[in-house]
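call fold(seq) -> tokens
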Amino acid sequence: MCQLLGMNSSKPAALEFSFEGFAERGGRTGEHRDGWGIAFHTGSGCRLYTDYLASVDSPLAADIKQQRIKARNVVAHIRKATQGRIAIENTHPFTRELWGQTWSFAHNGDLKTFEPNPSLFSPQGDTDSERAFCHLLSGLLLRFPRGQPPRHQLFAALDTLAGEIAAYGSFNFILSNGELMFAHSSTRLHYLVREYPFSVAKLVDCELSIDFSKHNHLDDRIAIIATEPLTSNEDWTAFTPGELRLFVGGEAIDRHSAVQAPPARTPRLNFAIC
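ret:
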């Protein structure tokens, strides 16, 4: 099973702590050695890094750990190939332009016999995951050709499309346009929200801990989504099968609340660590 990691924050945040543990699953504490990738949605756009090497062997992964890139939304993936060659074009996350925004997508699962009709977006590789991503975006564009719809309509459309695709197999994914983050679970996915009062967190995959109270401010709020919990002493919430959640400004929004108007956002200059 591939590994997913997502972050949605109220202000630009550095994912260094969570990524440190996550990267261990690419060949050291996990068997996922078929590539890895990460997409940072920053104020200047989406910065995508991918590598066909295992994350524990990748010089690029080591460099990412040192860069401390700050972003409001991050999508990361460690691959264990089920469909498609081990190649850079088959490495997640995948990105496409829709409504003038860059959308990033990473998938965990196996969509057997999923061969959708030709869509408005074409895969560059040969994975079921990229076909699903193209199908999702095509479905959104066909429904809303004039631009991004209100949040409740976007959520409802994604919920329907995700359910249709999940009929072909396991479909756990994280999707972001740099402001909103959607996460869907058909089998296994977890999340937590870090906010005041911050405490010490200990990684599962390596001997590393951090006291977030020394690095974050009172108004910081960061949501972390992962296939398996990254820390041993925090309260992670498991998604229910078939559940789609929206994350905005570090808040986890369920199906019922997603139809309400999004909260106003005040620009902040500081950044957080998660």
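The CA atoms of residues 29 and 157 lie 37 Å apart.
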